[in-house]
Amino acid sequence: MAGRKVKKMAVVGAVALLAMMIVAVIVIGFFAAVSWARLQANAARAKTGVPTDPQAVAQAAGKSKILVFRNIRSFKREQDFEEALTNLQFKFDVKPSVEMANTDLALYDVVIIPGGQWDTGFYGDYDRSAARFDSYVSNGGTLLLELNGAEYKAIQLPDGVRMVRHYARANQLLLPEHPILLPLGGRPIRAYYASHGYLANLPKNAVILASETTWGKPDPDRPTFVEYSLGSGRVIAACQCFHDQDGSGRGPLMRSVIGYAAVKQWFTPGNKP
C-alpha cells in the first residue's frame, strides 16, 4: 500500500514537473517571438532610415516645429537637413547664425546646428549665444548638433561639454541597437574623416553611441557621438557628418536622428528600442 502511494506521488510529481516545463517553454517561446518580431520591425524601419516608429514620427511631424540655423550649404551636399525634414513632412524654419542672439528658441521643439559652417562667423555666433542654448535645453528643448566643422572653434555645448579636435578614420558603434544607429546594421563608421573630434567634459548621464578606435578597439575616453539630458531637455551631439559623399554609408543617419530627436522617446541602455 505504502509502495503504491509513493509510486502515485512520484507520477503526480513527474506530471507536475512536465507541466511546469511545458509552461516555461511556452513562455520562453512567446518572449522569443516578441523579441524576434521587434528585431524584424527595427530592421524594416532601418531600411527606410527612420528606425523610430514611423507612426510616432508622423505624429511628431504633425505637431512639432524645428529650427535650422545655417549660413551656407553643408559640404555642398544635395540632401541636407532641409530636404530630410521636407521628406518627413516636418514644419521648419531656417535662420542665419546672426539671429541666434535674438530668436525665441522656446518656439521650437528641436533646434539643429548643421555641420560645415566654416568661415562664416557661424561658430562665433553660436559661442556668444551658448548661454541661450543652455537655457533652451534646460527648459525642455532638444538641441541637435552635427559638429564637423566646429572643431577649430572649441565651441561650448550645453552643460560645459566641449569638442576636442582630433581626426579619426574609424569609429566603433558602442550602442548599435540605438534607434539612431540602426540603419548602420552594427557596421563601424570608416572614412577619411570618420569623425572630426571627440567630446570632453561629458555629464555622468551621457549615453555614448560611438567612439574613436585605438588599436582597433573602441576608446570610450574619446566619444564621438553622444546624447545627454540637461534639465528637462536633451542634447544630441555628433562629431561625424551625416552624408554619403565619402562612401561611408552615414547618409541614413540624418533621417534617423531627426525622427529620434522629434519623437523624444529617449533610449535607455539595456532596453530594447
Task: Describe this entry's structure for a reader.
Helix content is 33%, strand content 26%. It has 273 residues and is an alpha/beta fold. It has 2 domains: 1-48; 52-263, Rossmann fold, CATH 3.40.50.880. Helix 2 (54-63) packs across helix 6 (253-263). The longest helix has 47 residues, at 2-48. Mean pLDDT is 85; it is low at 27-49.
List its salient traits:
single chain, 273 residues, alpha/beta, Rossmann fold, 9-stranded mixed β-sheet, 2 domains, globular, 9 strands
List low-confidence stretches.
27-49
- What count of domains describes the coordinates? 2
For the record, what is the CATH homologous superfamily label of the largest domain?
A: Class I glutamine amidotransferase (GATase) domain
Round the Cα radius of gyration to an integer and report it.
24 Å
Helices and strands, in order, run as HHEHEEHHEEEEEEH
| CATH class placement of the largest domain | Alpha Beta
Note the main sheet: 9 strands, mixed
N-to-C span: 59 Å
* Number of helical stretches of at least 4 residues: 6
Shape: globular
**CATH topology value of the largest domain:** Rossmann fold
